[in-house]
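Blinded run. Sample ID left blank on purpose so nobody reads anything into the name before looking at the predicted structure. Input follows.
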Amino acid sequence: SLEALLALGVSYVNELNNGQALANLKTWVQHNVKYTELEIQDDGYGDGTVLDDVQNLMLQALQMNPNDADVLEDYSRDYDSAVESFRAAIAARPNDYQLWNKLGATLANSNRSDEALSAYNKALDLKPKYARAWLNMAISHSNLHNYEDAARCYLQTLSLNPDAVHAW
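Blinded prediction complete.
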């Protein structure tokens, strides 16, 4: 399924297996019924790598459907573009707590933890018991050396999900 391809791809990213992650994203685009008409286009700049193919397909896909911006969050490492894509998606869906959390994660991944905190706060305003946002907020506070706030957020994460041993 498309969801399984994305989940597996994100797992590969988390394991720093970028080649396999890109292969999964390429397969996701090519098997997504929304994008059946897309083809890899020779723009004169490509080098024929999987990364180039995926970027080519995803840029076309995002032009067709900006709501799929979250797919790129962990794949591209082009954080500035990903941040702008999330902001565009949030403009269309301002009450989507997951988009706010993903914006925060993208900001944090680009060493902008201070900016990420406001995005996580917005996610939590929309869904106060969203454990993932509490965990991400804890990580950002840790990155900023705000250890008391980080501890408070870690404890909140564990109170919402006591089995979240990965939080430590």
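Unblinding after everyone has recorded impressions. DSSP finds eight helices and no strands in the chain.
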